[in-house]
């Protein structure tokens, strides 16, 4: 009984934020400064169509040839009710991955509705 109830709650929670939150306009670039050769800047727009505030964990998947995953990064953002948030983050990436990164996919790895 408890397991069935827990599963139902998790499914409901997942579908609730799935109807509220979307990610679009994902992109990345390498700053041109020689001192930042291993730094990557990635960005995305997170939209919240609901009246609740969410803590959202974004996962940036950098893809190489044939769509294979080369490197993953995560970031936590807060998205308010009805907000369209332009988010950018910078991270250091091992330089051996730089040439292999062709594109980016950003998805919501997890979201939690704020209780207050």
Write up what this structure looks like.
- A hairpin with a 5-residue loop joins strand 3 (54-63) and strand 4 (69-79).
- It is elongated and about 45 Å long.
- It is an alpha+beta fold and 116 residues long.
- The chain has one helix and six strands, in the order H-E-E-E-E-E-E.
- 16% of the residues lie in helices and 52% in strands.
Characterize this entry briefly.
The protein has 116 residues and is an alpha+beta fold.
Secondary structure: elements and pairs:
Layout: H1 2-20, E1 21-29, E2 39-48, E3 54-63, E4 69-79, E5 84-92, E6 103-113
Q: Report the structural category.
A: alpha+beta
Shape: elongated
Element-level helix/strand string: HEEEEEE
Strand order of the largest sheet: 1-2-5
Approximate helicity band:
10-25%
The radius of gyration over CA amounts to 17 Å
Q: How would a crystallographer describe the biggest sheet?
A: 3 strands, antiparallel
Secondary structure tally: strands:
6
Query: Termini, distance in Å?
Result: 30 Å
Helix run count: 1
List keywords for this structure.
three-stranded antiparallel β-sheet; 6 strands; 116 residues; 52% strand; alpha+beta; disordered N terminus; 1 helix
